Amino acid sequence: MALDFTAIDFETANSSSASACAVGLARVRDGRVVASVGWLIRPPDGHDRFFDVNIGIHGIHPEDVVSAPSWTDQLGALVDFVGDDVLVAHNAGFDMRVLRSACEATDAPCPPYRYLCSLQAARKTYDLDSYRLPIAAAAAGFLDFAHHDATADALAAAHIAIDAAARAGAGDILELAMLLGLRVPQIPAAEPSRRSDERASGPVPHLIGTAAR
Fold first, then answer.
1. What is the mean pLDDT of residues 84-88?
2. N or C of the chain: less Cβ packing under 10 Å?
3. In this predicted model, what pLDDT tens digit does every residue of 21-80 receive, in sequence order?
């Protein structure tokens, strides 16, 4: 067994779950972060208006994503990075809705990933006044990160899962879920209604994260 997974975080342009404007990813192998990366995304047409409240949260403006890859252009890079891993995200329901909704909005096939919520894991692991990402990450020893930067948030979620597994004595992410009494649900597979013969591929995204080996 090995504690292998990929943590993920999305930022959105507005209240639509399909309005992904940034993604961050952190790859964990044998309980250690070995790579992290993130990039901006041009939200799907019809979901591309930026709300002031969202800009105030993550600092991404419409002009920042003009030359960014579209959802379908970057999806291949996302899938390549994740591979067959279980995903981990803080408040994972939000991030899985973004993934599925953006795929539906663009008629892209949604990868049927399994996932674990680090927020739920934190609630089972720590005794805190709040389980917001910065506070739960601090309990895991991951301090002073740029909250709402997608890559930093993915790294924070990764460290929560790593620390929770160490405290629980879990050898892998599925054993962690079992020991904490958590589910590892799967995103329902969805096929596009058109362009089903096209693959989600395109230019390499504009990377804004870092690799750490």
1. 98
2. C
3. 999 999 999 999 999 999 999 999 999 999 999 999 999 999 999 999 999 999 999 999
Is there a domain that residue 205 lies in? Answer: no
Beta bridge partners of 12: 20
Q: Which residue has the tokens 């399909």?
A: 18
Q: Is the pLDDT of residue 211 over 70?
A: no
Find the CATH number of the domain harbouring 25. 3.30.420.10
How many domains is the chain built from? 1
Cα angle 133-139-145, degrees, rounded to a multiple of 5? 50
User: What are the b/e assignments for 178-187, b being 16+ CB within 10 Å?
Assistant: ebbebebeeb
The domain in which residue 147 lies consists of 5-180
Question: How many Cα neighbours within 13 Å face the side chain of 60?
Answer: 28
Across residues 145-152, what is the average pLDDT? 97
Tell me if 191 is assigned to some domain: no
In what helix (H) or strand (E) does residue 167 lie, and over which residues does it extend?
Answer: helix 150-168
In a domain, 75, yes or no: yes
Count the helices and strands in the chain (H runs, E runs): 7, 5
Residue 73 inside a domain? The answer is yes
Q: Is the dihedral of CA 54, 58, 60, 61 positive or negative?
A: positive
pLDDT tens, 112-148? 999 999 999 999 999 999 999 999 999 999 999 999 9
